[in-house]
Backbone:
């Protein structure tokens, strides 16, 4: 029942449909893999060159000592939000529609944070000394500077990564058991190892639920903390355009906004290629659409606040910076951002748009572009026209910059493509919970 | 064993090729063979000598570590420089350690170019030729050309010339100020260039004399000018400058008057006329200016009658004033007439003997007249010269107008011997190169003005296989004469012995003392002169070339003088203060011209004169007189051609290639303003590397000024105190001293000496044109020019900007590893080996004075020998910045502890402070109420840059004091 | 599974740390300690310092006035060895150098990283014995310093232990300075830029 939009699927269908996603992939899949791997090769090549010859290979300069690396870093951290939001917060709020998407979203979270985690290394002038940032007793009696937002980042991100990883794996256990039952040969052996001897007995379920709830409530505050901390990298600095108390909520909202967009970008193709319309129904798309719309509107509100504060402040340098952003060299980037993040999502006011995969897909892509440019606009133009006119300057991305930024997307998609073929990208268990219990005679596999 | 031998034994040098955090190779240490109490490895020893980068002859002390000179400083005892040194002097080290320095004697092998030879072989070639000529009765076919050598080297050379019966020696200086000499002959009947006592003048009226850049003695006159001009207890002199182009000197004027090129003489006479009319000058000066009608003068010069009258009033009332003339637009065919007019002004205002002092005459008076240079060129072209001997520092092919056709003439000479130690355009034409030792490796003496004799002594052993010119010529001369050592007219075995013999009467037995002081300094009785009043002719200069064209102002640059300093990559990367451009040469055109041609900055222009064509990128200047174009002299791409530094360009950028060989009618001196050029747009671009994004402060009050009246008011009553910025944090405690600095913006003339001095002291690498253009220069200190008022007539403020060592430093809290931290002595420390390179501090520094090592920068051999062993050479990927010369602070404290005392004010001088000709920078302990720095921080003119951010800098600036008129 | 993941993550993290430490301690490693054979002349400190009780600064005479302790000039060596043990093989080598007026190419033993400045002068002024830093030289046949940070020390630190830092490393310097300030009431600087500038 591939296109089971109308009738609800049975438990058996669930197992079959989900496990079908794990069948040996086709040529299209491999073509994608090769393409992605190629980009990744370029990524490592560029990075190696930068380590060997120095940061100068990237287009950074005075005053833009940060540029596209940090932009992309914040972008990926942002993407990393939706996953835990969906799986943890929506779980605690018992939003049942989350079930069929949260697995993919969680995977996305972990991979996004892993991708983001590369950038502090790529960005550091002497990455081989990056361990100076770790607080460990050493024979030089030196400690990191706990006043520095960068050190906060180290903690925030590593915590977030570990918690979401654990959360993800716990969520997987019952499904792996299902895989185990469905698979044979070496796969079976591996899965049974990973399933940790899951029986589905009531005691196991009781413990499992408790653990899951506990982790969910642990993960929830992190969703908010991580991006707040990342936003302080900027808010704690003096730079006009950065030094704003607005940043924490502003960043968190933006993160969720882009996160959901990315979820859609990943789920919609899966839905199409794996014929999961029965599980990722229009209801889901509608919900996601609404969330994007809401977060988009909130973001628009923050943009207005940002402009208002710098105008109302009467602070000459603050204003000069704003006017320069809006009118000068980088204006195109700013207006792209406004269009993608404020205007484009408005179509989602219409239910027909929210339920049309094509429209959703286009909007999501626009949102991602817009959100990348948001970070770009915060970093590059603000630095380019700050306090000191002598050093005002324009940043031009170098090939190294571009190869590494593009390569980071390759890194992410490589991981995700691998995931959808190795693990059930829908939660079998929770999907089953959402459908009426089976009648005895049709029971098998459970 | 003498010092020379000692230097040959090298002890291990800490800084050689040091890069933080890299694997150390096992190395060996070489102890001395014989102990030497004067030179201890790890302890600096200082040798005083004389800077020979230009004829100003400033005193220098060279800091020697482990047998290598690592830093130059001005000699405080020397009357000319008084401890200061200009950027060219600072950069002399790069000539000493130049990668392209000639490695030994060379002989030309036909067209194959040079081939290394032994000293004996090379000398023999020359000696044989000379002997042949002498015995053939053609000794007159031998010519010797040197730079201005008025000391004993000159004396020895003249004896040598006599011994061989050669043509009289020609001393060649492109800027010989012959018009001043001729004018003084005419007016004061004295063929000399006097000492101009700027320090005693109330009003200085300069007609194009760029005395802060190259005119006569830039360090000495910048210093004395500031003594008269900078605001001190309520008083400050006035400086009026007349020039078609806003030069660095013009930018320092209280009133800059833009005149039509070449009309300075007319203007001077007009002013004289006005003075006479106002009854401020003796009637007898009236007839000198009788021919002048103010109205007509105003039209011709483009200076309004009111301005002329105002200047006349100011100058006439000054007690005393000083009028000086020079620079390119006063070097036309009417140069001497202009100088006569200026002399009359001085005479009329009664300045002669007060601010114009004959007696202590400048060394320039001894330069061979250009006429004889021209004769020599003719003789060479005519094949009369068969042996030409060129001393070091002379590069006539480059520094004289191509109209002289000197290169062709030299090619006609069968034997050309060059003593250059770095290859240049002239030594390329030589047949034999016998590299002279660099002046830092040589014995000698030089007298910049009467009564002052500076001694040169070797400060280290020769870097390359080079020998003193004197020694080589003595050997060759004797060989040519066929006499052996100790006999004949030139018996001395070495120049050193000749010199010490000649010094004996001078030093009266205390040679050591004289060498320590740096020479023998005395005063000479002033010579009384009387002015002869005769009508000065005020006809404009004759200009060759297209009558409809623009007047070419080929001006000597502060950085390269006539080009002999251009080998230094430090100077190439030290920005020109006005344009803030580095590395490349440019043609400066006025905004109107740019509009007419439809060019923007960086567009390539073909500059065409009858002599030839130059292709240069355009620099568009709103200040330049519309009838002129200006090209700086001395730009050469000689600093070792490396793609990383600058794209190699074989095309000439030398304005001399456009000039005809025209002489000033009266004095016979070389006329630099002698041709009109036409411009055509080429359509290609070569963007300039301009370091300063904009000269407009955008109301941020970075460089502040206060009106003279207000300054007086405040000096008397004190400034109304602003309330301190409220803070939640307790004041920082300093157990020991708190180091701080004050920079008097009113005293800064923007000469860039501090920038280069800092680069030399702190091992700051050179990044090259591309990187510099892209905001990646590494200077720890930069010199900013901020312009206010009308763009075509701006008031300029020069602001040295370096790490402000903020008490509440934005860079510190953001550094994740404490690489940037606050020391307990109030410095903002930077620990290179702890830095990870997140560059967060660089973003958060509102002054953007933090520098990042984008690449692993190189110090091409042997330049790495110059590296200061007390300062770490930074590795790629780390942040660096001004440390307030912490190594000097540590050394100072160490010295004090040795003497069991506390550090006294003035014990410690930063590199920038030490070299500043106008003493604009003061460093000291801010906790010590008595220290000079603290006193200045209490000045009513004190302010902090970007104070409103609340960073509480340790560096305090003092506002520039402006005179209402000048700052339109 | 979670357990496994935990172990895996921990292992990975640990590995990463190890790699970094390895790189770092490698990058800070000073020149290898000299082997007896490495030195041009086999110079026995124990004889000079131990047996003949020659003061360190008689030979290393720059220590009191310079950043470097300095080495005795060949002349100074010959001062004694014109007579003393002139017949010994090693001394003959010395005499050769002296005859040729050549310096002796000693192999450097104590080498701090280039970004670290250690002025002997200040420490002599403070009255330190050379042995405090350089060990019991009077017992050494060939002086060979065992210096530089050790990976093991970092790891022990990581494990929460507090081993004594190896000689001539930063921790070791800091320990002494702190102790001096605490006990002897001195003002031994602890400012980074004092040694790193």
Residues:
């Amino acid at each position: 029942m591939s296109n089971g939009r109308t009738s609800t699927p049975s438990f058996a269908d669930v197992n079959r449909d989900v496990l079908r996603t794990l069948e040996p992939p086709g040529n299209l899949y491999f073509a994608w893999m090769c393409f992605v791997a190629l980009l990744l090769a370029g990524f490592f090549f560029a990075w190696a060159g930068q380590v060997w010859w120095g940061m100068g290979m990237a287009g950074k300069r005075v005053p833009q000592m940060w540029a596209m690396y940090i932009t992309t870093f914040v972008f990926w951290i942002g993407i990393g939000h939706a996953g835990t939001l969906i799986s943890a917060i929506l779980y605690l709020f018992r939003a049942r529609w989350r079930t069929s998407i949260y697995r993919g979203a969680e995977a996305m979270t972990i991979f996004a944070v892993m991708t983001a985690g590369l950038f502090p290394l790529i960005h550091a002038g002497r990455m081989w000394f990056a361990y100076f940032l770790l607080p460990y007793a050493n024979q030089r009696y030196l400690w990191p500077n706990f006043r520095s937002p960068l050190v906060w980042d180290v903690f925030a991100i590593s915590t977030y990564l570990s918690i979401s990883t654990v959360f993800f794996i716990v969520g997987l256990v019952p499904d792996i058991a299902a895989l185990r039952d469905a698979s044979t040969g070496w796969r079976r052996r591996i899965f049974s190892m990973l399933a940790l001897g899951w029986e589905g007995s009531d005691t196991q379920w009781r413990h499992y639920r408790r653990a899951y709830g506990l982790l969910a409530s642990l993960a929830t505050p992190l969703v908010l903390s991580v991006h707040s901390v990342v936003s302080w990298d900027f808010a704690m600095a003096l730079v006009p355009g950065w030094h704003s108390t607005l940043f924490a909520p502003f960043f968190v909202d933006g993160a969720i906004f882009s996160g959901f967009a990315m979820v859609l970008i990943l789920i919609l193709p899966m839905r199409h290629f794996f014929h999961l319309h029965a599980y990722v129904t229009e209801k889901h798309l509608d919900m996601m659409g609404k969330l994007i719309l809401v977060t988009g509107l909130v973001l628009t509100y923050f943009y207005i606040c940002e402009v208002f504060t710098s105008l109302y402040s009467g602070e000459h340098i603050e204003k000069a910076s704003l006017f320069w952003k809006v009118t000068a060299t980088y204006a195109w980037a700013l207006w792209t951002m406004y269009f993608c993040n404020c205007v484009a999502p408005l179509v989602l006011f219409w239910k027909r748009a929210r339920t049309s995969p094509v429209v959703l897909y286009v909007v999501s892509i626009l949102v991602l572009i817009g959100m990348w440019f948001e970070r770009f606009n915060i970093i590059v133009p603000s630095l380019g026209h700050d306090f000191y006119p002598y050093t005002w300057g324009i940043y031009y991305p170098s090939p190294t910059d571009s190869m590494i930024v593009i390569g980071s997307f390759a890194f992410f998609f490589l991981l995700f493509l691998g995931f959808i073929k190795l693990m059930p990208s829908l939660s079998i268990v929770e999907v089953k919970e959402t459908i009426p219990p089976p009648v005895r005679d049709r029971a098998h596999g459970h | 064993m003498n010092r020379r031998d000692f230097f040959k034994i090298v002890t291990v040098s800490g800084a050689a090729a040091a890069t933080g955090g890299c694997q150390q190779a096992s190395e060996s240490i070489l102890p001395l063979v014989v102990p030497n109490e004067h030179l201890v490895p790890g302890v600096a020893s200082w040798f005083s000598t004389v800077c020979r980068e230009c004829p100003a002859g400033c005193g220098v002390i060279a800091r020697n570590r482990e047998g290598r000179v690592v830093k130059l400083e001005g000699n405080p005892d020397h009357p000319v420089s008084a401890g200061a040194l200009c950027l060219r002097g600072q950069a002399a080290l790069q000539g000493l350690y130049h990668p392209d320095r000639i490695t030994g004697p060379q002989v030309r092998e036909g067209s194959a170019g040079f081939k290394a030879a032994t000293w004996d072989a090379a000398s023999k070639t020359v000696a044989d030729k000379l002997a042949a000529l002498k015995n053939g009765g053609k000794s007159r076919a031998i010519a010797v050309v040197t730079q201005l050598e008025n000391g004993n080297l000159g004396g020895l050379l003249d004896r040598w010339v006599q011994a061989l019966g050669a043509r009289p020696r020609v001393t060649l200086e492109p800027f010989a100020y012959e018009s001043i000499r001729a004018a003084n002959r005419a007016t004061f009947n004295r063929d000399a260039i006097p000492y101009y006592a700027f320090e005693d003048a109330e009003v200085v009226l300069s007609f194009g004399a760029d005395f802060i850049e190259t005119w006569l003695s830039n360090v000495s006159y910048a210093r004395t000018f500031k003594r008269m001009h900078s605001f001190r207890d309520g008083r400050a002199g006035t400086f009026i400058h007349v020039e078609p182009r806003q030069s660095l000197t013009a930018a320092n004027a209280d009133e800059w008057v833009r005149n039509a090129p070449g009309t300075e003489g007319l203007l001077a006479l007009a002013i004289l006329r006005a003075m006479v009319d106002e009854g401020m000058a003796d009637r007898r000066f009236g007839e000198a200016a009788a021919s002048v009608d103010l109205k007509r003068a105003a039209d011709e010069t483009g200076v309004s009658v009111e301005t002329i009258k105002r200047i006349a009033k100011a100058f006439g009332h000054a007690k005393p004033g000083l009028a000086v003339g020079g620079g390119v637009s006063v070097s036309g065919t009417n140069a001497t007439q202009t100088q006569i007019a200026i002399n009359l002004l001085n005479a009329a205002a009664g300045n002669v003997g007060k601010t114009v002092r004959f007696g202590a005459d400048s060394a320039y008076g001894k330069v061979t007249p250009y006429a004889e240079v021209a004769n020599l060129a003719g003789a060479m072209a005519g094949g009369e010269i068969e042996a030409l001997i060129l001393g070091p520092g002379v590069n006539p092919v480059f520094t004289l107008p191509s109209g002289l056709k000197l290169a062709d003439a030299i090619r006609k000479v069968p034997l050309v011997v060059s003593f250059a130690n770095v290859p240049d355009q002239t030594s390329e034409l030589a047949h034999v190169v016998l590299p002279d030792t660099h002046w830092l490796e040589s014995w000698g003496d030089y007298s910049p003005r009467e009564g002052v004799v500076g001694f040169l002594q070797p400060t280290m052993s020769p870097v390359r296989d080079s020998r003193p010119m004197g020694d080589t010529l003595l050997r060759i001369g004797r060989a040519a004469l066929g006499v052996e050592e100790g006999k004949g007219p030139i018996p001395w075995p070495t120049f050193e012995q000749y010199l010490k013999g000649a010094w004996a009467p001078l030093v009266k037995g205390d040679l050591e003392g004289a060498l320590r002081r740096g020479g023998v300094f005395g005063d000479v009785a002033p010579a009384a002169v009387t002015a002869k009043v005769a009508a000065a002719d005020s006809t404009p200069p004759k200009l060759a070339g297209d009558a409809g064209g623009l007047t070419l102002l080929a001006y000597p640059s502060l950085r390269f003088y006539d080009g002999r300093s251009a080998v230094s990559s430090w100077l190439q990367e030290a920005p020109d203060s006005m344009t803030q451009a580095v590395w490349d040469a440019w043609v400066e055109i006025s905004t109107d011209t740019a509009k007419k041609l439809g060019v923007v900055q960086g567009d390539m222009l073909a500059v065409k004169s009858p002599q030839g064509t130059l292709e240069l990128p355009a620099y568009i200047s709103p200040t330049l007189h519309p009838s002129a174009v200006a090209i700086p002299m001395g730009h050469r791409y000689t600093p070792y051609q490396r793609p990383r530094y600058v794209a190699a360009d074989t095309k000439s950028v030398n304005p001399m290639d456009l000039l005809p060989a025209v002489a000033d009618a009266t004095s016979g001196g070389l006329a630099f303003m002698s041709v009109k050029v036409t411009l055509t747009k080429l359509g290609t671009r070569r963007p300039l590397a301009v370091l300063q994004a904009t000269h407009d402060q955008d109301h941020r009050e970075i460089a502040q000024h206060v009106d003279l009246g207000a300054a007086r008011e405040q000096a008397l009553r004190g400034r109304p105190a602003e309330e301190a910025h409220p803070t939640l944090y307790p004041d920082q405690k300093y157990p020991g001293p708190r180091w701080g600095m004050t920079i008097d913006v009113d005293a800064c003339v923007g000469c860039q000496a501090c920038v280069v001095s800092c680069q030399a002291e702190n091992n700051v690498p050179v990044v090259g044109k591309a990187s510099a253009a892209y905001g990646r220069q590494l200077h720890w200190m930069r010199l900013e020019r901020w312009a206010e008022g009308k763009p075509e007539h701006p008031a300029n403020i020069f602001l040295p900007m370096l790490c402000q060592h903020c008490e509440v430093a934005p860079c510190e809290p953001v550094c994740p590893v404490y690489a940037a931290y606050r020391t307990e002595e109030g410095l903002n420390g930077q620990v290179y080996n702890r830095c990870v390179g997140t560059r967060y501090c660089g973003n958060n520094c509102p002054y953007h004075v933090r520098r990042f090592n984008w690449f692993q920068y190189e110090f091409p051999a042997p330049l790495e020998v110059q590296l200061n062993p007390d300062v770490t050479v930074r590795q790629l990927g780390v942040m660096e910045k001004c440390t307030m010369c912490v190594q000097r602070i540590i050394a100072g404290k160490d010295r004090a502890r040795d003497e069991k005392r506390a550090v006294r004010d003035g014990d410690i001088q930063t590199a920038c402070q030490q070299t500043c000709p106008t003493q604009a920078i003061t460093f000291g302990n801010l906790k010590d109420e008595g220290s000079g720095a603290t006193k200045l921080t209490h000045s009513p003119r004190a302010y902090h840059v970007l104070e409103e951010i609340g960073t509480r800098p340790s560096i305090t600036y003092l506002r520039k004091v402006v005179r209402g008129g000048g700052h339109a | 599974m979670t357990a496994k993941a935990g172990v895996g993550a921990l292992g990975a993290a640990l590995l990463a740390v190890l790699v970094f430490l390895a790189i770092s301690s490698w990058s800070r490693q000073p020149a290898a300690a000299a082997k007896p054979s490495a030195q041009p002349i086999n110079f026995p400190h124990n004889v000079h310092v131990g047996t003949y009780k020659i003061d360190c600064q008689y030979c290393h005479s720059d220590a009191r006035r310079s950043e470097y302790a300095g080495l005795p000039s060949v002349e100074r060596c010959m001062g004694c060895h014109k007579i003393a043990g002139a017949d010994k093989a090693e001394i003959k080598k010395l005499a050769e150098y002296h005859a040729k007026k050549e310096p002796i190419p000693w192999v450097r033993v104590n080498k701090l990283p280039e970004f670290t400045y250690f002025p002997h002068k200040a420490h002599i002024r403070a009255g330190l014995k050379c042995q405090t830093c350089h060990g019991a030289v009077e017992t050494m046949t060939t002086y060979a310093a065992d210096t530089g940070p050790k990976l093991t020390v970092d790891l022990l630190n990581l494990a929460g232990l507090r081993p004594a830092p190896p000689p001539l490393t930063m921790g070791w310097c800091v320990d002494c300075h702190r102790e001096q300030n605490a006990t002897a009431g001195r003002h031994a600087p602890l400012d980074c830029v004092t040694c790193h500038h």
